[in-house]
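G., the chain you wanted modeled:
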Amino acid sequence: MQSTLVKAAALTLSLIATAASAEGVRTEKNMSLDLATQIAAQTVATCTANGYAVTATVVDRAGTVRALHRADNAGPHTLEASRLKAYTSASAKNTTLAMMEGAQKNPAAANLVNIPGYLLLGGGVPVKVGNEVIGAVGVGGAPGGHLDEQCAVAGIAKVQDLLK
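Predicted structure as tokens:
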């Protein structure tokens, strides 16, 4: 009986040690400068082709700006709006349009607007490799958040082959 307890204790300690070492170093995918630049350029090009002067900001998984493209004639407010949308999307791992709609329909989610740095307007879309969010793109300047989001989705789609 005692040897069984000793073996169980040894096994338990071994499992704890293995779990502890697994928590020490992590490997994560993240947004490269080249990828961020391509997404921003493709997003602005899509909006420009549709007649919208926008700014596209791409952030990495931590919400740090990696690339920013501002179309000719895009308003000065679009710089900060696109950054905040990208940050919000990367942070929450969701589109800002879905978050805005959720906050409007769900009183428990209404306080999301009070999180510093969050902007719940359509136009922020996460960039994913599989199910892992590696960053986000935020767009500001089209006549409606749903149109900002369409440009972001199209910009990401144009580099989809790089997201593997």
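Strands lie at 55-60, 65-70, 124-129, 132-140.

Shout if anything looks off.
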